[in-house]
Amino acid sequence: MPNPGLSFLREEHAAVTTDWMVLTAIAVSFGTFVLVELSTGTGAVSTAIETTLTDVPVIALGLLAGADPAAEDP
């Protein structure tokens, strides 16, 4: 009488399932690693941009493009 445990281990279907599980775990781990690294990097860049834009002086122009309504012909 054949042992059902040994026949399962000798079948190819179990190996294919194991391969897919390992490949899926690697892909998910890699994706998680990339997301963590990108979120850290973009946070630092956005902080630097915010600091730079906060330090830029703003000049009031008054009317847009220097147009003077009194100089226009009616």
How would you describe what is shown here?
The protein has 74 residues and is mostly helical. Helices cover 69% and strands 0% of the residues. It has a domain at 8-40. The radius of gyration is 33 Å and the shape is rod-shaped. The relative contact order is 0.05.
The radius of gyration computed from the alpha-carbon positions, rounded to a whole number of angstroms, is 33 Å
Biggest sheet, open or closed, and with what strands and sense? none
Count of helix runs: 2
Total E-strand runs: 0
Low-confidence stretches: none
DSSP strand (E) fraction? under 5%
User: What average pLDDT do the residues reach?
Assistant: 79
Q: State the separation between the terminal residues, measured CA to CA.
A: 109 Å
Fraction of residues in H or I helices: 55-70%
Order of helices and strands: HH
What is the global morphology? rod-shaped
Label the structural class. mainly alpha
Provide tags for this entry.
single chain; 74 residues; mainly alpha; 2 helices
Task: Please outline the helices and strands.
Elements: H1 4-10, H2 12-55
Characterize this entry briefly.
With 74 residues, this protein is mainly α. Helix content is 69%, strand content 0%.
